[in-house]
Amino acid sequence: QAKKLSYLYINDDTVEIRDASHLKGKDTWETQQALEAEHGVSGHRMSVYSIGPAGENLVRFAAIQGDYGHVASKNGCGAVMGKKRLKAVCIVRGTKALTAHDARGLIQAADEIAHDLKTDPSTSTLYNWGTLFGVTNLYKLGMLPIKNYTTNLTTVNMEDWAPAKLRHGFDHRGHQCNACGMHHCHIQVIRHGPHQGELVDEPEYEGWSGAGWTIGLTDMEAVSWLNTRIDRACVDVNEFGWLCGWVMECMEKGYLTEKQVGFRLNWGDVEGAYRLLQMVSTREGFGDVLAEGVKRASEKVGGEAAKCAVYTQKGASPRGHDHRGRWDEMLDTCTSSNGTMESANPTFQTEIGLPARINPFDGEQVARLTGGILGRRHFEDSLGGCSFTFRTRVEMLARALSAATGWHYSLDEAMRLGRRTAAILRGFNLRCGIGPEVEYPSERYGSQPLDGPAKDHHVLKQWDHMLDVWYETVGYDRKTGKPKRETLKELGLDWLARDLWGK
Ligand code: SF4
């Protein structure tokens, strides 16, 4: 922990911890602007990842936000920076080139990955629109979370929420990460209303959901504005959505009072939601309770209010989906060792012998698929790239890795590396006391939808069987949650087997 608020400055071989007292209390965009002015560098020539007030005040779901709209949002990583009194990491673009073992092979692999991204039907929408297609697609399947899981239907015209309308309805320009060719991440301008003319980052699907549908807000200008305010405060938009939606529902039903919260908050009230965000970010009044996250806040309030909160028993909350219509994501989120989806969505899974399609409401099929893909995302993440640009076959990624390093990775070795990582993460969680006894959704998270396309399906009726099948598929022990001794041996993790199981 630094003695006073500091920032880390990196410029080629210069690595310095510098005083950041002048940045105290600034939001993430203000911090970036101040550091750009201080160093006289901006755009892709300098990257700044920082925390806002929520990180400084150790809000449990504080995020790290960078370069106007890019966010590392899970597990309170912003609170970790706040605890260490690290306000920002500021990196000037390096001048020294990286070398590849086989530059030609690497370029060929990159070209083929780009080709897959642009042309494969399962990835080209992401290439063209980022995650904007999520709103309309998920609504059709009952997976768009509306008003804190109280309904899956709306009278809003969903054609207005098609990706092209969301993007071209605003003046906008691309704001991708350095050197990325995907049509993802834009900056846009608020067209009208009280914040007319303000620059905001185009909400991801998760932003349209967490800062919008989950809290009953469907005015696109207002959602865009609130979403950016959430980024600027450095708050995870998913957790904020579940928290704000929970407060709104509880106030509507009388489970929370104006006296407790400090003011009246109704569905879709953007200024009220912003006020709540400020209270959370500064831990003011009831905001101090909310800053502990929706699980702890709802448990503290108790009674009927506790039954309305969406979270996993491990303490995290899901992404901005209604997982009652998406069982693979709920199972993945609840069994996860990383606080969010660990296996992630199936991508080109036929290359590892898994079916292209399953019945999404057959718990056994869901569990076999979710367990079967475990390891792929870990391998991707270990490469240090963006998972959106890695939506290709693992075999292609392994080829790229081999060309970059000369290590000769195959598909099987890549998956094995990923499963090793998953097993180590699980061992770490077990040491921290997080085991199978908390692999359940909260009452509301695991409830049966009241309406919409998934209303005839109740995930909890199959939950225990899903866990049985998932454990069998990944080779972990159902009772203790530990990866089995033979699984660890197969993965070459004898040291972990000794650690978890003794001699
Ligand atoms: S696809 Fe990934 S690398 Fe490209 S702009 Fe989006 S987040 Fe950045």
Q: Report the CATH topology name of the largest domain.
A: Aldehyde Ferredoxin Oxidoreductase Protein, subunit A, domain 2
* Structural class by SSE content: alpha+beta
**Cα end-to-end separation:** 38 Å
Rounded Rg: 23 Å
Main beta sheet strand tally, sense and closure: 6 strands, mixed
CATH C-level category of the largest domain:
Mainly Alpha
- The appropriate CATH architecture of the largest domain is Orthogonal Bundle
Q: Which ranges are low-confidence, i.e. pLDDT below 50, for 5 or more consecutive residues?
A: none
Strand arrangement in the largest pleated sheet:
2-1-6-3-4-5
Oligomer: single chain
Offer a concise description of the structure.
The chain has about 500 residues and is an alpha+beta fold. The chain has 23 helices and 9 strands.
Descriptive notes:
Helices cover 43% and strands 8% of the residues. It has 23 helices and 9 strands. A hairpin with a 3-residue loop joins strand 4 and strand 5. It is globular and about 60 Å long. Iron/sulfur cluster binds next to loops.
